[in-house]
Amino acid sequence: MAENIGSIEALLQEDRTFPPSEEFKKQANIKDPSVYEEARKDPEAFWERFAGELDWFKKWDTVLEWNPPFAKWFVGGQLNVSYNCIDRHLKSARKNKAAIIWEGEPGDWAVYTYRDLYREVCKFANGLKSLGVKKGDRVTIYLPMVPELPIAMLACARIGAVHSVIFGGFSADSIRDRIEDSQSKLMITADGGYRRGSVVPLKQNADESITGDTPVEQVVVVRRTGTADAQMVDGRDIWWHELVSDQPLNCDPEPMDSEDMLYMLYTSGTTGKPKGIVHTTGGYLTGTYATTKWIFDLKEDDVYWCTADIGWVTGHSYIVYGPLANGATTVMYEGSPDYPGRDRFWSIVEKYACTILYTAPTAIRTFMRWGEDLPESHDMSSLRLLGSVGEPINPEAWVWYWKNIGGGRCPVVDTWWQTETGSILIAPLPGITTLKPGSATQAFPGIDAEILDEAGNSVGPGGGGYLVIKKPWPSMLRNIYGDPERFQEQYWSKYENTYFTGDGAKLDEDSYFWLLGRVDDVINVAAHRVSTMEVESALVDNPKVAEAACIGRSDEIKGQAIVAFVTVKENINTSDALITELKQHVATKIGPICRPDDIHFAAELPKTRSGKIMRRLLRDVAEGRALGDTTTLADPAVVESLKEQYGDED
After folding, report:
1. Domains of the chain, with CATH numbers?
2. CB hemisphere CA count around 632 (13 angstroms)
């Protein structure tokens, strides 16, 4: 597999390094590299120390029970996630500290202290109880990025109900699939949400999803846009504000077993029905608490902003549970980064004096295309640390982010993890790790990550293959809801007792990890397997290119041909000469085998609202197939435009 994963020599020749500054090292939470060796020698003791920093109603008897592929962490322990995210902070001065700073797309905003959050969560938890929701019941949450979303999650956790958050961009059919699989008895939605100045009709989608035979008995509706009053169904629907108006201000937290389910989150597979990933209580909270604290070097006065949507796992772990368990101030934003102007993110950083910014490479490359003038027009001197999440980041995007957003003073923590892993598994510790643009660097202490070849042999430094995790970790998924056979087949069947991530990676000579994306994002060119990430990085390395996505299309001679969709920076003219230039640039940077056969210029690339490029749809376009599911696209018109353009070119 070492030669099959695609050589990323161009990436590994990246010779820019960024050691932590002396100033940053002095204030860093973690200054001593010996934490890696300590965790390697006794990972259970390492994780037990973090668990001990949380508040437990009953301490565990056993740290880990491992019966592959099933793990149990902190066995016999009892705790409550809502209590750990709120109540324990009320015992100190944190009670008056901002817990959530929220900004709506139209410009409205609100601040919730930890005392405010306690009151609102307790009122809604009591409201859920009044509707008959009890421990173990599943609750579907289909909301925009409004404060009621984390409040609903924490209220479910408080009473022991299992939440299933569905991203606000999903269609009625997608919602129905998830409701039926989870057998949710209650749904929480809103009349609508704001996106690029328009109202997203959430109530309409929710209503369509529960027509006919449905397990949903009641629907709680947040009034956000004032657009669905006439759609309220008597006897089934109730307004959030009416439900909580007379509820008591206190609600005792339900003691939960460490292995009780906290939530399920559906992740779409390329085939088959969506997978309900199961995360439990004690281990998940330990993992998100630890990684938030160390990777983001969290301080008491930080204002931390993760730009993800809570409908995805990044929002669960690094907007809600990780930051709040640490007593941090976490920022939420409802809308689009380009509304009403392309400087919206930077205005938010300036307005709230954000100190930590955690966003996606796709967003960073978009900001690159928009130019440096926008961030330069705002005071972002408050920032002290940057993070990247969602997919591998190109070295040039990393450096642009570091220079133009971080002012050349902020470490960039590039993080690798998955819905299934629950928390970050590979990332630098910013006070001790020398950074390399494009590399997620090293596994978090206590995580046993390796790269294996097809036969299961470790490839070692300089080798490429499949990324796996060799030992259990606290925040790992426990199952696929209702489908343990699929759980075993999907994640544990390729190598014995080893978690198969489905991602390709390579180790450099310093044993740093370079992630290549999904192993199915590999193009077979004349018996050579080329990583799409490698070709995309080479294209983005050209100063005229803002973003690129590569796919393989069928070719009678070579098996597959490389097709690149490229977005250029503003004020760059597209031409046949530029196509020739870019093809040669890739050939020079990586090698002739990786030269794209076709390059198509695109004003935009098709992306989900979480920022990931949908290469599957680009393959549909390139092969002339009917488009697959487009319900999660930020702008469905983008792929239709590409299809028309591609057809014209043919």
Report:
1. 9-335+343-505 (3.40.50.12780), 521-649 (3.30.300.30)
2. 21
